[in-house]
Amino acid sequence: MRQPKTHASDAGCRKRGSAAVHLGAAGRAGWQTKTLDQISVNLDSRRIPITKADRTSGEYPYYGASGIVDSVADYIFDEDTLLVSEDGANLLARATPIAFPASGNYWVNNHAHILKFDNPTTQRFVELYLDSIPLDDYVTAWRSRNLLRRR
Questions:
Q1: Which residue segments constitute the domains of the chain, with CATH numbers given?
Q2: DSSP per-residue codes, 55-75
Q3: Alpha carbon distances (Å) from 49 to 25, 133, 149
């Protein structure tokens, strides 16, 4: 069962500090810090959006930026991954989690990043971490709200 999430807009979450504060504390504790590309594989190139008019209803979850948005007749993934919202007001509002696991057979559109981890514990840690930190410093105002991706 998922624990209730603290929203980034809550004062309590802001008091926890930025990602830089968390990384500094980890370093002082002797933890290794790694970037996402060192602990996961980005599968974004396999995303395929389907317009609502072109979707055939079916048994497989169709994921978007905030979780399951529809069910479709086919799937493109059959593996455990972590989906991370790419855009939308929810990146700051936090009405729903911005990182959520997907497993089994499913389809992902172009509004969620797809990360594959070798270690399920690492995946869960990243999920909880992303859902707990304020993202204000990482979200751009270009177009809608987009999670900044370092290249």
A1: 11-139 (3.90.220.20)
A2: PPP-SEEEEETTEEEEEES--
A3: 39, 28, 20
**Can you tell me which residue has the tokens 């504060």?**
21
Q: Is the entire prediction scored with pTM above 0.70?
A: yes
Residue 24 token pair? 């500094």
Q: Which amino acid is at 12?
A: G
State phi, psi for 66 to the nearest 5 degrees: -120, 20
Q: How crowded is residue 145: how many other Cβ atoms within 10 Å of its Cβ?
A: 19
For the chain, the distance separating the N- and C-terminal CA atoms, rounded to the nearest angstrom, is: 35
Residue 141 has pLDDT above 70, yes or no: no
Pull the structure tokens for residue 33: 């810090």
Q: Which of 71, 135, 140 is nearest to 104 (CA)?
A: 71
